[in-house]
Amino acid sequence: MHRLGFKLELSIQVFYGSNPICKGCLSCSKDNGCIRCQHKLFFFLRREGMRQYGECLHSCPSGYYGLRTPDMNRCSRCRIENCDSCFSRDFCTKCKAGFYSHRGRCFRGCPPGFSALEELMECVEGCEVGQWSEWGTCSRNNKTCGFKWGLETRTRQIVKKPAKDTIPCPTIAESRRCKMAMRHCPGGKPRACHKNLYEHSLTEILVLT
């Protein structure tokens, strides 16, 4: 009779705040909550200020993962910084807001060679490009002479396409201003500068007046 009364006492739900702390327990303490859980549930030690008590849960809360053992299933804390949920103590499956998931870790920005997939907040293999070529010949209007200034261009090749079509590749061509090696083309007439044209026009105006 005494043993039956003890079992009935353990089956009664004891409330701490708004949570029934003895739900799913095999053994429970009024002060410390669950001590042992039913077979499929996870034991979680909850802390609220100076108080801590055991709970039996179907799934572990954010920042913890379920560890199944022959003795008792437990909720263990994720050891990955800025991790919201993890597969094991050293492999994060979902990072906290503002962080990208990459190979089980959480980063503010993706490592070199990887690009951010914003809709999933994951780092995926990005577009890989080769080395820059040497700067090309300074030219303008497809000519390498006849002008003071022109443009020179260098390029690089895409050596690996990104994992997703939505991930842009870095620029593969860029140009910069350059000074022509030859101002005047060989055998060609020298181009009149703006000053000579202005003086010629002014002389014509004076003669006409």
UniProtKB/TrEMBL annotation:
Keywords: Developmental protein, Disulfide bond, Glycoprotein, Heparin-binding, Secreted, Sensory transduction, Signal, Wnt signaling pathway. The keyword Protease does not apply. CDD domains: FU. The keyword Coiled coil does not apply. PROSITE patterns: TSP1 (PS50092). Residues 127-180 form the Spondin-like TSP1 domain. It comes from the Eukaryota. Residues 22-123 form the R-spondin Fu-CRD domain. GO terms for biological process: Wnt signaling pathway. One of its GO terms (cellular component) is extracellular region. One of its GO terms (molecular function) is heparin binding. It is found in: Secreted. Its main location: secreted. PANTHER family: NEUROHYPOPHYSIAL HORMONES, N-TERMINAL DOMAIN CONTAINING PROTEIN, R-SPONDIN-2. Belongs to the R-spondin family. This is R-spondin-2.
